[in-house]
Specification:
The chain is 31% helix and 20% strand. By secondary structure, it is of the alpha+beta class. It folds into four domains: 57-108, Wheat Germ Agglutinin (Isolectin 2), domain 1 (2-Layer Sandwich), CATH 3.30.60.20; 125-175, Wheat Germ Agglutinin (Isolectin 2), domain 1; 182-341, 3-Layer(aba) Sandwich (Rossmann fold); 350-536, Tumour Suppressor Smad4. It has a six-stranded antiparallel sheet, with no helix packed on it. A four-stranded parallel sheet has the order 10-9-11-12, with helices on both faces. Strand 11 (273-278), helix 7 and strand 12 (304-309) form a beta-alpha-beta unit. Helix 10 (378-392) packs across helix 11.
């Protein structure tokens, strides 16, 4: 009996030890990774503070990445690196430990040449060693560069030409940089130095200092909205800075269009093209800044506008041939070629005047500019609810898919609630001064362009009925009605036609009852008049 009890107590104690051992190792497997993660995040935050301090004081436009998109080598120690810092302007890539040394020893792109008292008409190459673009070829021997698994070969940060290490001596005989394929789009640093000297002498005859050998010089200014698209705006900023002079590329979250467009006044008259990277709202913002230039008497410096669509709807860019949305499928080089070859056309722009009649006409009318369309009804309610939601939590609206899902939510909600019903009893419509009898409607849409609601040809409908031709440069507005959100959805998929109310040079909507316009209910009597403002010259793409 005693032996049996001893064996049972020993087995029970060993099972307890085994249980505690299991608990211990389970806790270790959970706690140790957490501690390692916390330690790494603490160390990383300390490193980031030091890195940000270097970034802030540097002349380079440094950005940190956890993983380079292609095999990369540190420009200082020549070691292979997976993560580190890269310059958005000159393309330098360095490891974290070599960042400070690289900042001291390597020059970035100079936006303006240092003055030495002489007038320059050319500049030498600016060579950076290693990390040449994939599928690049030597300018001397025409063989592929960057094929060896090490830091090798050179690239000029201005003309983007590449050369082998062994061919470098032959290339050094050609000291002058040609600025490469996009020489007609780049503002050379020596040009800005000359302009600076002319301004000191109070002269503005900039046509006389057009860069040598450039008869068709059309410098491009890039304005990018980093809030538009799936973070594409920030990526494009870096790619354009690599190909152009960094002074030509502006982040609209840091610099307003009005301020950025003042660069046009330092360039020859009617020579500049502006590439707007953003949605239709960003394009409207830039066009308003151009209107301010007209008011200031700077008509001769007004640029032509091209569009790279990064927004959700992109109806204006779609109408002008720039596409329904950009997601990186076209190289930046091809975008610049399209801008070079684009043709200028006129775009009608309209003045929307909102007059409130509830204050004995003492209040000044509110005036807005319309480029795409103006509406009262369910689509306006969806758009303004979406806008209010995005203003509260902008971080949630970083994807076109999420944006369209939110639009779908508000559209479905309106199908059930029908906040805009009986609009025809609350609004009177006049086209060119003539009263129009309205059928039973929930919305009225005044169109300036062919596309509406993210790619729908609203005026055409299903295309099974004859309708008058509509253009964005004919001085006419198209006015249509919709029966509700469900009717809008049917038109989107070409299962229904809109209610075509007519075409006119001026449109007037008179509110005679309470109605919803966006997120609020308008109780006071208002009138909305849409009349011609003045056309703007904008570029259209045929690609």
């Amino acid at each position: 009996m005693a032996g049996t009890e001893g064996r049972s107590s020993a087995s029970s104690s060993s099972s307890v030890v085994a249980d505690w051992s299991l608990v211990f190792w389970t806790l270790c497997s959970v706690i140790v990774p957490v501690l390692i993660t916390l330690w790494c995040s603490f160390q990383r935050s300390r490193r980031q503070v030091l890195i940000r301090d270097i970034f802030r004081k540097s002349k380079h436009d440094w950005h940190y990445t956890d993983l380079f998109g292609q095999p990369s080598y540190c420009c200082v120690c020549a070691q292979h690196i997976l993560q580190g810092a890269f310059c958005n302007c000159c393309g330098l890539r360095v490891s974290e430990g070599c960042l400070k040394k690289a900042d001291q020893h390597f020059l970035c792109k100079e936006i303006m040449m240092r003055s030495d008292g002489r007038a320059h008409s050319s500049m030498p190459h600016h060579w950076i060693r290693g990390n040449v673009p994939l599928c690049s070829y030597c300018v001397v021997c025409k063989q592929q560069c960057g094929t060896q698994p090490k830091l090798c070969d050179y690239r000029c940060v201005w003309c983007q030409c590449t050369v082998h290490d062994d061919c470098m001596l032959d290339c050094l005989k050609i000291e002058e940089c040609t600025f490469g394929e996009f020489k007609d789009l780049i503002i050379p640093p020596y040009y800005l130095s000359t302009v600076n000297q002319l301004r000191k002498d109070k002269r503005t005859d900039y046509e006389k200092i057009v860069p040598y050998g450039r008869k068709h010089w059309i410098p491009v200014i890039v304005l990018a909205n980093t809030r538009s698209g799936n973070n594409m705006g920030e990526i494009l900023l870096g790619e354009f800075k690599i190909l152009l002079n960094p002074v030509q590329v502006f982040d609209l979250s840091k610099t307003t269009p009005a301020k950025a467009l003042q660069l046009c006044t330092l360039l020859p008259c009617n020579a500049v093209r502006v590439l707007v990277c953003g949605g239709d709202g960003t394009v409207g913002w830039v066009l308003d800044a151009i209107d301010e230039m007209k008011i200031k008497g700077q008509e001769r410096f007004i640029p032509q506008v091209a569009i790279l669509p990064l927004g959700t709807g992109n109806d204006l860019s779609n109408t002008l041939g720039w596409g329904a949305g950009y997601a990186g499928e076209v190289p930046v080089e091809q975008i610049l070629r399209n801008v070079m070859e684009a043709d200028g056309i006129k775009l009608d722009r309209w003045k929307v005047q909102v007059t409130n009649k509830g204050y004995y006409n003492l209040r000044k009318p509110k005036v807005f500019t319309m480029n795409n369309y103006f509406s009262i009804g369910p689509d306006a309610l969806m758009a303004l609810n979406f806008h209010a939601h995005r203003e509260k939590t902008p971080s949630l609206f970083s994807s076109r898919i999420i944006n369209k899902a939110v639009y779908f939510f508000y559209g479905t909600k309106d199908c059930l609630v029908q906040e805009c019903k009986d609009l025809n009893k609350k609004v009177e419509l006049e086209l060119d001064g003539e009263r129009i009898e309205l059928p039973n409607l929930e919305g009225i849409i005044v169109l300036n362009i062919g596309y509406w609601g993210g790619g729908c040809r609203l005026w055409e409908g299903m295309g099974d009925e004859p309708y008058p031709l509509a253009r964005h440069d004919d001085g006419l507005l198209e006015v249509v009605g919709v029966h509700g959100s469900f009717h809008c959805a049917q038109i989107q998929v070409k299962l229904a036609n809109p209610v075509r109310l007519g075409q006119a040079h001026t449109v007037r909507l008179i509110q005679i009852g309470s109605l919803f316009l966006g997120t609020s209910c308008l109780d006071r009597i208002c009138s909305y008049s849409v009349s011609t403002f003045f056309p703007s010259v904008i570029l259209t793409s045929h690609f």
